[in-house]
Amino acid sequence: MTVVEPPVSGTASPAPASEKPGRFDPFRILVGYLRKAYSLDLRSLALFRITLALIILGDLIVRACDLTAFYTDFGVLPRAALLDRFSPPQRFSIHLMSGSLAFQAVLFLIAGFFALMLLLGIRTRLAAFVSWFMLVSVQTRNPEILQGGDVYLRMLAFIAIFLPLGALYSVDAALDTRSPDQKRVRGFAHFGTPGLALLVQVALVYGFAAILKTAPEWRTQHSAVYYALSIQQMATPLGHSLLHMPRLLPLITVGTLLLEAVLPLLILCPILAGPLRLLAAVLICSLHIGIGLSIRLGHFPYIACAGAVALVPTWFWERKWIRRRWPWSAGEANSGAGVRVYFDGNCAFCSKAVRILRTFLMIPAAELAPVQDSTLMELEMREHRSWIVVEPDGRHWYKWRALMELVSYSPIFSWLAAVLRPGLIARAGESLYDAIEKRRDRLSAFTDWVKPRPLSLRTSPTVTIFALLLIAYITMWNLSSIIRAPLGPVGDAIGLTFDWDQRWDMFAPSPLTYDGWYVIEGKLRDGRRVNVLHPDQPVSYAQPASIADQYKNERWRKYLMNLSLPENTDYRLYYGRYFCRGWNTGRLPQDPAALVSFDINFMGRQNSIAFPNRPYTRDLLWHHECFK
What is the mean pLDDT of each run of 10 residues along the chain (628 residues)? Predict the structure, then answer.
């Protein structure tokens, strides 16, 4: 019976033959201890890969909803304006090659394809590299809609390139051609300097987030959380309700600051590394889930939780209650024992498909065999035109029903078998199987680029040195944000080119206190007044029931919040032109319904504990004429 062994982690190497057993070597013991303390677990890295890919896919879907507005020359920031006035020359973006909608759509599809490859673990390192490259490119295309989560996401995506993300629960692992002896494992812990870089990066996020919170609202008055929840553009209903607990908010403020300060110590402490790092992962997720439920921060909470998933140590996976509840997580699974799967050994697609199924269903004990090894099975396959799943009691299953019986042995997805067995679904499944069976040759050719190959988890000397340099660089960059000392032309250029520049000033040095909403009043050719921002609503300067709901999504909220700041005045011209183009496309200047001019008004106020009911005042940000 063939059993898939967990992959080699690379955490340790055999002792030299010349070394005598029992020889005391303090340096070797110390190095071994530190390697273990700063190792990442392959199971956690697999979950990190999945969450990272899902976040990238979700980000692409949200961005695609505003493809024209944010990424084409028809939108709020044409390429010429970005290159001439706003973007440093060191930045790169293939999204700047064309401003057409079709070109941008193709790039989004390419990015989505490689993110899907990353999700499934197909050519994982290549998928991680292209996903990072496309992520940086799309972020550079429109920097005004970015937030701190985008910076964190691109750093996680970059470091992910060098991590063994495809070692488990991936197509790469399923098609690993190493022998069972080569796959034999000493543990799931994997040490490498890229993993150390990930630990340092996560620690830097929270350490400098605490250091940069220097305002009295954080340090002495303890009113920062009150001001953060008072931002009507961002607060959720839960956030609004917390404002009625004035005694609790100072405690949350102090707790947040202390938690951010202590997280780097928990992440990087080599003593009790397993329990402390697990505690750090739990605290990070708890912190961001709580913030995400109270304040609208887009995808930032998900990104932070993805970073925390990678921190989950081997110590957690080796707990007895984890091994009892999820034996597959410890490589002890007997799932699929006694099940034999016969497939056509002459069909490359079939061979890869059954291996991938065994991996993703987590039934490593299931035996795979080509029907050519048994004359009777080959005749049975030809008779039923199907693969064959043989259960331990000897029952044979074919086509869709065979898949359902195989799924029923999965420790994770067994519930799917009951869902997909009913008559209508089963008939559709049989039709799907027949369609696939008729196209096996074409599918084999189509998937030929996904080839079985040996999986290597070893970190090359070049990558080892590069990761150490990266750790030093991002640490120096963060320090420069405090001491106000630039890294010099070369150092700055490196950070801007690879998008390693970062500043973790979330609600720092103090939370935003200027809050409000937009009213854009336009004038048509026939003299009518219209609400340009919400054409289906009349012009009104009254406070809406929910200020946060005035924004389409997080990207638009971030863009318009940035637009209200004095340092972003130059962006307002292009926002105005975007409205003129959008409204007047297909209309002549003499058309009575043509938009002639409009005023961009911001109904704003400074939030204050002393004056919580201060009225909103009208601030004219921009007057725009559509026709000269």
Answer: 41 43 78 92 96 98 96 96 91 94 98 98 97 97 95 97 95 88 73 96 97 94 94 92 93 96 96 96 96 94 97 92 70 78 93 94 91 92 93 93 92 87 87 92 93 90 96 94 81 91 92 92 94 92 90 92 92 95 91 94 91 89 91
Which residues neighbour 421 within 8 Å (Cβ) at sequence distance 6 or greater? Answer: 404
* Mutual angle of helices 461-483 and 488-498, in 10-degree steps: 110
Bond into 422 cis (ω within 30): no
Looking at the structure, tell me whether residues 440 and 468 fall in a common domain. no
Task: Tell me the pairing of strands 396-398 and 529-531.
Answer: unpaired
pTM metric for this prediction: 0.92
Residue 521 is classified by DSSP as E
Closest C-alpha among 42, 307, 266, 20 to residue 157: 307
Q: Identify whether residues 280 and 174 lie together within a single domain.
A: yes
What φ, ψ does residue 620 adopt, rounded to 5°?
-80, 110
- 221 and 289 share a domain? yes
Q: Is 579 in the same domain as 533?
A: yes
DSSP state letters, 411-453: TTTHHHHHHH-SHHHHHHHHHHHHHHHHTHHHHHHHTTTS--B
Q: Residue 413: count other Cβ atoms within 10 Å of its Cβ.
A: 16
Neighbours of 177 (CB within 10 A): 10
In this structure, the answer to whether residues 221 and 131 fall within a common structural domain is yes
What is the pLDDT at residue 12?
40
Rg of the chain (C-alpha set): 29
Residue 132 CA to residue 135 CA, distance in Å, equals 5
Cα–Cα distance for residue pair 626/628, rounded to 1 Å: 7
C-alpha span between 164 and 153 (Å, rounded): 18
Contacts of 155 (CB under 8 A, 6+ apart): 201, 474, 500, 502
**Kind plus residue range of the DSSP H or E element containing 524:** strand 514-524
CATH of the domain at 352: 3.40.30.10
Residues 586 and 580 sit within 8 Å (Cβ to Cβ): no
- Pair 196, 83 in one domain: yes
Q: Looking at the structure, do residues 471 and 433 belong to the same domain, yes or no?
A: no
- Please tell me the predicted confidence (pLDDT) of residue 18: 42
- The whole-number pLDDT of residue 350 equals 94
**Are 483 and 523 contained in the same domain?**
no
d(C-alpha 426, C-alpha 492), whole Å: 59
Domain that holds residue 308: 40-314+460-498
User: What is the tally of structural domains in the chain?
Assistant: 3
- Pick from 49, 67, 51, 607: nearest CA to 288: 51
Give the chain's count of helices (H) and strands (E): 28, 10
Pairing of strands 367-370, 340-343: parallel
User: Is 555 inside any structural domain?
Assistant: yes
5 domain-assigned: no
Q: Phi, psi (5° rounding) for residue 453?
A: -160, 160
Question: How far is Cα 602 from Cα 365, in angstroms, rounded to an integer?
Answer: 64
The one-letter amino acid code at 541 reads Y
**Do β-strands 388-390 and 340-343 pair in parallel, antiparallel, or remain unpaired?**
antiparallel
Q: Is the dihedral of CA 39, 497, 565, 212 positive or negative?
A: positive
Residue 352 CB coordination number (10 Å): 21
